[in-house]
Amino acid sequence: GQQVMQIPQYQHVQEGEDFTTYCNSSTTLSNIQWYKQRPGGHPVFLIQLVKSGEVKKQKRLTFQFGEAKKNSSLHITATQTTDVGTYFCAASTSGTYKYIFGTGTRLKVLA
Amino acid sequence: DGGITQSPKYLFRKEGQNVTLSCEQNLNHDAMYWYRQDPGQGLRLIYYSQIVNDFQKGDIAEGYSVSREKKESFPLTVTSAQKNPTAFYLCASSVGDQPQHFGDGTRLSIL
């Protein structure tokens, strides 16, 4: 079945450093979503990517969808303590509402 | 998340007992989902429903059952066949394959 791998599993950075998490699928995707979950909370939607090679930015966050639509990345520039949490990708294949979530990357930012 | 209500927030199950987790949404979303999250882990799909009176198994449906008799409601029953039910259960809803809105979750433990 479809698998979605996310790396790294954990990342500790000093405040102000950059951070990147990668999401890789074994199959071609229809679209990919990114979510952030704060400790003790529920996932909150960040962005959806649909087109091959798509790049979207939200302030310090940059999201990319690979040309082959099998991988994606989230990059945070100059991390802040408010960026702490776990970042998940969620991947979907065509013709279904079913999403497979990646294993997540837990980010800790040291002040 | 606004519009999705999960109850109860905490639930304790005795051995051999079935328990039902409630999920109600007033967002007029067609699709609803149930996920299980274990400590430090990602989200795994239990069941999802794209329309009323229809639902599909996710990756870990064994020991769980659902119903979708109304558009706004998607209750999850954790049966006695689920031998390791302790987890954080998250309900979500969406319009088609658009971003999912999550409830605050239910934490289930075994007595």
Provide the descriptors you would attach to this structure in a database record.
A: 111 residues; mainly beta; 6-stranded mixed sheet; 0% helix; B: 111 residues; 7-stranded mixed sheet
Structural class call of chain B reads mainly beta
Largest sheet of chain B: 7 strands, mixed
Oligomerization category of the chains in this entry:
heterodimer
User: What does the radius of gyration of chain A come to?
Assistant: 13 Å
Task: Report the structural category of chain A.
Answer: mainly beta
Which percent band covers the strand fraction of chain B? over 45%
Please state the average pLDDT score of chain B: 93
Our count of helices of chain B gives: 0
- Work out the radius of gyration of chain B: 13 Å
Straight-line distance between termini of chain B = 29 Å
Can you tell me about this structure?
The complex is a heterodimer of chains A (about 110) and B (about 110). Chain A has about 110 residues and is mainly β. Chain A has no helices and eleven strands. In chain A, the strands form two sheets. In chain A, strands 2, 4, 5, 9, 10 and 11 form a six-stranded mixed sheet that branches. In chain A, strands 1-3-8-7-6 form a five-stranded antiparallel sheet, with no helix packed on it. Chain A is globular, with a radius of gyration of 13 Å. Chain A starts with a strand and ends with a strand. Chain B has about 110 residues and is mainly beta. Chain B has no helices and eleven strands. The model of chain B has no long low-confidence stretch (mean pLDDT about 95). The N and C termini of chain B lie far apart (about 30 Å). In chain B, the strands form two sheets. In chain B, strands 2, 4, 5, 6, 9, 10 and 11 form a seven-stranded mixed sheet that branches. In chain B, strands 1-3-8-7 form a four-stranded antiparallel sheet, with no helix packed on it. The chains are: A mainly beta (about 110), B mainly beta (about 110). The interface of A and B includes residues 96 and 103 of A.
